[in-house]
TrEMBL record:
Residues 9-186 form the Formyl transferase N-terminal domain. Its EC number is 2.1.2.2. This is Phosphoribosylglycinamide formyltransferase. The gene is purN. Pathway: Purine metabolism; IMP biosynthesis via de novo pathway; N(2)-formyl-N(1)-(5-phospho-D-ribosyl)glycinamide from N(1)-(5-phospho-D-ribosyl)glycinamide (10-formyl THF route): step 1/1.
Amino acid sequence: MSVAEPLTLAVLVSGNGSNLQAIIDRIEAGEIHARIACVISNVHGVFALERARRHGIPTVIHANGAFATRREYDNALVEVLRTHRVELVVLAGFMRILSDVMIGAFPGAVINIHPALLPAFPGLHAQKQALEYGVKFSGCTVHFVDNGTDTGPIILQAVVPVMQDDSEESLSRRILQEEHRIFPESIRLFAEGKLSFHGRQVRISS
Ligand code: GAR
């Protein structure tokens, strides 16, 4: 019996990389049939890069300032991804908006984690937005990336309570615990071919 090749991922990061770590751990545990071909950061010196190195994963710095326009940045990024034969692009705390160049190059194959229950609180500082609004529940969303900001088809969501005395940090920590569960799980579903589109609805087969 022939065994299918693992799905080739690139994980794009800008910071701590705790979601990257959760993905690495599930792959190393043999729970996701995938391999991370490279970790790409738009910021130098972030801890996510150190996490990648500790696991022998190649790293690439694709710095914000090195390109004149968003499209030039994305064209060069597509080239890096193609060189590594990437099949799924995973935005794990990548704090940069992608243009139609990237989305067009990887249709249905770019996913993002957002620390709120979309469509509520898209964009930056989602946890702060939730606290200021006064919602009683928030959470996180894994979604396919389209040309909008945090508007693409939703794969998985998880809900957490918001406490009266929550700070941005305490709420972020509670949400992150759920991120670390649903993001790797979404990648597993993708790798196993279990996700399909019906309009903008993502259906999950068992
Ligand atoms: C996560 O909370 C993720 O949802 C958020 O950045 C954090 C990255 O943490 N992403 C966004 O806000 C994207 N708009 P990590 O570097 O520890 O994975």
